[in-house]
Automatic annotation (TrEMBL):
Record domain DUF2520: where: 145-269
Annotated protein name in UniProt: Putative short-subunit dehydrogenase-like oxidoreductase (DUF2520 family)
PANTHER family in the record: CONSERVED HYPOTHETICAL ALANINE AND LEUCINE RICH PROTEIN (PTHR40459:SF1)
Highest taxon of source: Bacteria
Length: 295
């Protein structure tokens, strides 16, 4: 990819993977007029039903059908298939100067080793977005942060993709990809799991499911906004933040054997934050004993 295109149109981008991430990325790049030409390769025998096809992107069902004059390649396949796809690309008649990215959150650029050995600049660009649908996912990608790895032309391609998606870049230190992805799991996947627990407890309290879900989502949204605005220490509220030992004890008394360890584990994390706000040492000690004993 020519350097002058770094913050402009990408040229001919080849996206390998016709799942939610690949199609969402392709659609947003097209909507933002960020690519001159877009080719998508997938396993389906024909192009999926999607706004990109047939007019705005070319669909190919086989890696052996190599597009011509490719400026950059994005591998958007399941994590376990990245190395295999990369090795297959390395055996294709693609210019060795062509930069290649993958979109995995947990895998480093090591999985592109076969391409690197052939001379390809390699990197990764992972969007911090929950993409549940290949069409609405395009707007989910707009403006989000991306975890970035790579140097040279791979970094230039990653920057072009992020810029085209109106996003922000998070530079990941060498070897930091698994921990980076674990952070994303805590913030997204486990937040969903915690809301599921909260909804179950609301049901036990007699609150109807739809009403509980709406109320809890609003409560969680406010907490997230407070963290974004002030940071987790200042955003912490609730009984641990207040040093309310009696309320925590009441919770633990009524929770099930399955729910209590989770409550205690998170309670200890909350206590760590509360201590930073100057929580009374006697209350903190009582909470630490209570949360530890119920583990």
């Amino acid at each position: 990819m020519a350097p002058e295109r770094a913050l402009g149109r990408i040229g001919h981008l080849w996206i390998i993977g016709s799942g939610r991430t690949g199609l969402s990325l392709g659609l947003l790049l097209h909507r933002n007029a960020a690519v001159e030409r877009l080719t998508i390769t997938g396993r389906r025998p024909a192009a999926p039903a999607h706004p990109l096809f047939p007019a705005d992107a070319e669909y190919r069902r086989s890696l052996d059908a190599v597009p011509d004059a490719v400026d950059g390649i994005v591998i958007a396949v399941p994590d376990g298939a990245i190395r295999e796809v990369a090795d297959r690309i390395a055996a294709l008649p693609v210019l060795a100067s062509t930069p290649v990215l993958h979109t995995s959150g947990s895998r480093s650029t090591d999985v592109l080793g076969g391409l690197a050995e052939r001379g390809h600049p390699v990197g990764s660009a992972h969007p911090l977005a929950a993409i549940a649908d290949p069409v609405s996912g395009a707007e989910r990608l707009r403006g989000v942060a991306w975890g970035i790895e790579g140097t040279g032309a791979a970094r230039t391609l990653a920057e072009a993709v992020v810029h085209a998606c109106e996003g922000r870049m998070l530079a990941i230190a060498p070897g930091g990809k698994p921990v980076y992805h674990a952070a994303a799991v805590f913030a997204s996947n486990y937040a969903v799991a915690l809301l599921a627990v909260a909804e179950r407890l609301m049901d036990a309290a007699g609150v109807a499911g739809d009403e509980a879900r709406t109320a809890l989502a609003g409560l969680a949204r406010g907490a997230v906004e407070n963290v974004a605005r002030s940071g987790p220490v200042a955003a912490l509220t609730g009984p641990v933040a207040r040093g309310d030992v009696e309320t925590v004890a009441l919770h633990l008394e009524r929770l099930s054997e399955a729910e209590r360890p989770l409550y205690c584990s998170l309670g200890r994390e909350a206590l760590h934050l509360a201590r930073q706000t100057g929580l009374d040492s006697a209350a903190a000690a009582r909470l630490a004993d209570l949360l530890g004993e119920a583990e």
